[in-house]
Design a protein that fits this description.
By secondary structure, this protein is mainly β. It is built from no helices and ten strands. Strands 1, 2, 3, 4, 5, 6, 7, 8, 9 and 10 form a ten-stranded antiparallel β-sheet that branches. The chain starts with 10 loop residues before the first strand and ends with a strand.
Amino acid sequence: MAQADVPRIDLDYAFSIRLDTGGRIAFEGPMRSRVFEPVSGGEVYGPRLQGRVVPHSGADFATNNLMDAHLMLQASDGTWIYMNLIGYEHKVTDDGSPYFRVAPYFDTPMGTWDWLSKTVFIGTAERRHNPDQILMHIYALR
């Protein structure tokens, strides 16, 4: 197959999520490093989804810089949305600040927001301090 025949992948900006975090518990175990980082709240905003991160609804259970966060969102109309966020964190920027690449997936009730559970998403994220937050920008595969 010629390279010209390979279909292009297009992404559309869908929304951003600000995760407010409530501190980190990190330790080195005999098998790997682990981090527990609870989510204390946040906001969802953008053209395709608006709402909030439900306070104390989940956390990131990271190991060896691999994210595995489970938490609940609530759309602006009150609909509950489960999000599992997987990805990785790197600290190889010029200034040493970490950045993330993420792939969230969602589970929703049937109806207005079920398109979330039928769409492939990828995103970028960055860690911020004072206050501690993770800011993600999420894109839908077209």
